[in-house]
Write a structure and sequence with these properties.
With 188 residues, the protein is of the alpha/beta class. The chain has one domain: Rossmann fold (3-Layer(aba) Sandwich), CATH 3.40.50. The chain is 59% helix and 12% strand. α1 crosses α8, α2 crosses α3 and α6 crosses α7.
Amino acid sequence: MRLVLLGPPGAGKGTQAKELSARLGIPAISTGDIFRANVGQGTPLGLQAKTYMDAGEYVPDAVTNAMVKDRIAQPDCTGGFLLDGYPRTLAQVAELDAMLAERGERLDAVLELTADTDEVVQRLLGRAAVEGRADDTEDVIRRRLEVYAEQTAPLARVYADRGLLRRVDGMGAVAEVTSRLVGALHSA
């Protein structure tokens, strides 16, 4: 299966990506992990990304797209993959479509984890306290959630129009949410 996992910060995407990866036997691919791997290996794309990351800026689409294209071309992705954190923009949706078309493939489903904003804010404030992230204030977290909603709503609409989007309640115990996601895939 070739899947995309969408959801706001704090909805549990990383946790659910690992759970689904194990259940489905496909790699969970996070753009953050791809960036760290390329930087750690000193690849040309990694060195490019590092200059932006060190400056606290977003890695440009061209670099991100190239890294994702390289990653999904790896042998472990032959049977499918789960993308977590990509695509984030309409331009990246178009780029992913082109990457898959080039390989004669397409997405099987897009899963969107939904979450109650106030509960997500509390989750992220708790995580910020544990991890010592003093800059993750409630105002900053709420702004990140607003930006996510603004940027992701168009993606969700595109995938819904294609009949690929499955919205799943991301609140509750990890096993409950995983069960809902698997159920949504079976209905896809």
